[in-house]
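Appendix B. Extra example for self-study. Work through it before the problem class; the solution is given directly after the inputs so you can check yourself.
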Amino acid sequence: MPRFLLTRVSSGLMVLLLVCLFTYLVFFALSPDPAVQICGKNCTPELIDQIRGNLGLDQPFWTQFFLFVVGIFAGRTYGDGAGAVECAAPCLGYSFQSSQAVWDMIVQRLPVSATVAIGAAVLWLLAGLVGGLLSAVKEGTFLDRFTTGLTLTSMSIPNYVLALVLQYVLVVQLQWLPFPQAVRFADDPVQWFLNFVMPWMVLAIGYAAAYTRLTRANVLDVLRENYVRTAYAKGLPQSLVWRRHALRPALTPIVTIFGMDFAGLLGGALITETVFGINGVGKMAADSIARNDQPVIMGVTLLAGFLVVVGNMVVDVVYTAIDPRVRVNA
Amino acid sequence: MTSPQTDLTAATAGGAGADDTAEAPAATQAAGAVQAGAGGTWQALRRDVGAMLGLGYIVLVTLVAIFAPVLTSISGWTPYEFDQTAIDPNLGGMPIGPWGGMGAEHWLGVEPGSGRDIFARIVYGARVSMSIALSATLLTTVLGVSLGLLAGYFGGRVDLVVSRVMDFLMAFPALIFMIAVLSALPASNRSTLLVVVISVFGWPYLARVVRGQTMSLAQREFVEAARAAGASGARIVFREILPNLRSTIIVMSTLAVPGFIGTEAGLSFLGVGVVPPAPSWGQMIAASVKWYAVDPAYFLVPGMCLFLLVLAFTVLGDRLRAVVDAQEGR
Amino acid sequence: MTTDPMLLEVRDLTVTFPTPRGPLDAVKSLDLDLEPGGALGIVGESGSGKSMTSLAIMGLQPRAARRTGSVRLRGRELVGMSEADLRRVRGDRVAMVFQDPLSSLNPYYTVGLQIEEAYRAHRPGVTRRAARKIAIAALERVHIRDAAVRVNHYPHQFSGGMRQRVMIAMALSTEPELLIADEPTTALDVTVQAQILDLLQEIRRETGTGLVLITHDLAVVSEITDHIVVMKDGVCVERGAVEQIFTDPRHPYTQALLDAVPRIDDEIGELRAVVPDAATTSPATENTATENGGPA
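Solution. Structure tokens for the complete assembly:
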């Protein structure tokens, strides 16, 4: 098993390095003038010169890339003398527009994004598993067809459209929810919680629909397995056959997908965070796109890549614990 | 499409494959089923209300997209014309009249602030949505099928390379990376860029399935018969294997379209998609965020159009898959 | 009713599936008889309805199917019995062994647990510990070495033949009166096939369990069973004692099946995929046929 983990970790690191390389390529090799790109919209010629010098953009691509990778582990200093800027250890770059290291910007906002992702995940897991199981139990009935229709509809609503509809209906028309206001949990926990209700719903609904379909399909597939037939042939009561022989095999694959989805959401809820004005990593990325603050976009891309890779590894470890076939073979 | 050649080979397979009663008829039907199946699929699909409604809407949007200039010449407004008489400068540019200024002059109202005709923008936006989504689907399908066939049929080192690339791309934080790429690259020719970027990250999902099916088809009697008869690799791949993958490819491609529509709209929503003033539904919704509380029609019109188009493709793909699954289960 | 001498008495058993082209009989008007401790072979190609017959006896036919006719176990009618009562029959008085032991065992649980639950389902109040002992004993009974260790292993840690032994151990843990084995050796290697057949023989001898053996392989049935029912398209086309079927098949289909059993002198035997272990089973076939013909 340690060896198995070692392979996973090394292949994960490989993916990360490639993500790094591709991102770097896109920003520094493909764009016509990286310094102008990095400088952003409100730029002065002096600033451009400073950036060009600081980043060593006159150096060969591989040198630049090497410095960047080293910076992630060891930190780096851009430029020298009075204009030098410090970028501490996990240095994912430096935003010259906001005069802040990208890593610090991310760390400030990650808890918010985590709150959004965790709440949504709880909702969609509950809805998806319950919906999928009910649909499978009642296969072919009105309830099943209704659920199928509902999932197709839910999957088809773009989340920003849903976000606007919800905001218009729940906040403007019905006034069930207050207008979102930036508050800290300690100051006004109720407002804080209510702020997150709509983002949770919006993010959860698409996933809930997908998980409902997945759960339903998995359960129905497993019920056709020979070992379920064996369980009936042994004279086990229906409830035990379902609980022990159908549910566990049907739900295990969902762990894999859940890990990926959750990891993806942590850094990737750009649209939802933007629409609801939630100050997380996603909104930061979206704002950076609008301002053309390239180092931030790149940093978030790397973070997202890191989260997906780590999510994958966590899933693999969890999988070895719940699927005996993987556990022993590895 | 079914050539005498395939029929002949299938018949040979039926004669030679007398070993297993279940396999032999399947092989005999394989080639015939391509034609009979296509007709049967259409017959079954025609009886499905949901699929037909979806198809109807898709056809409608396609026609609207094709005849956009004709439609706007009838309605009297181009998507770029500002109509200052339709908005109220005293109310911050709110459209005059209920429902966002809908009426005989502007059928679907006008944009607040600018007074541009929403109908015209929707009609031209349909062009963008459909052309990008369909081009991306086409490119994804070509890439996915050819690489999947290549990996599945030739195996060995080819398979290793293709599989590695697929694993990498699927573990990649695609959406964020797309945003990063699109924001870094110059804005000229965004549509082509969108198509390319979407396809680069989209093909592995189809290729994975095609690869798997090719591998199992390559073992089948009729393929071995063709090989024994001295058919070349290319001939086997295109004449024997590809026709049998047709339903899979059609189903998966149809199911991919709504994702691409959503991705294009989402990227445009975030401001890295189609460049203004060219109209796109996602971009229209993004512009409507500021106005959602006072002018809900502004987001409802493009929101509904987008939602219905995604839903139409989703339902059509879902029904298509159900029909094909049922036929193959027989 | 209880004095009925027959262990299994099937009359006019019909299993019907609804299809788009109208109802289809997978099994049509089938009669079967099995005395206590007897062994009956049901032979036919895949699709002949023999597997559906075995499931229908237990009331395990697919939900969409309709089962009519009569299935009596020791005179007790199983058709129309409540699901709760049927459950008490399944696994306790009638146990099944399926074709593919890998897919028939749940990969997520140890074989011990899967044997224990079969036992405990019919012996309420038995502790886990007691059930564990039963499971180990059952594994030992089917000659699995280190049963006390193996009981904690998962199905994928066993070889094909060992898995089938586990299935048999599971079936026997409740000491059933009737064992239905549906192609128990088909998924196995030739040498392992012979071992499993030997095991079934041995168990029958020692416990007096009745056996219904379902197979496409006449060579297999002739080794163990004394009576044969030949099925084709859901209908019984021929029935009789083993040696009678082998020496004087009446139905051309039986003749065809017999021809598919390769002989030593059959040069193209290996081309006929029905029996993979061509040369080895053939002499044994005839021996056992005569051996079994007498006493039964």
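Self-check: The longest strand of chain A covers residues 76-78. If your reasoning did not lead you there, revisit section 3.
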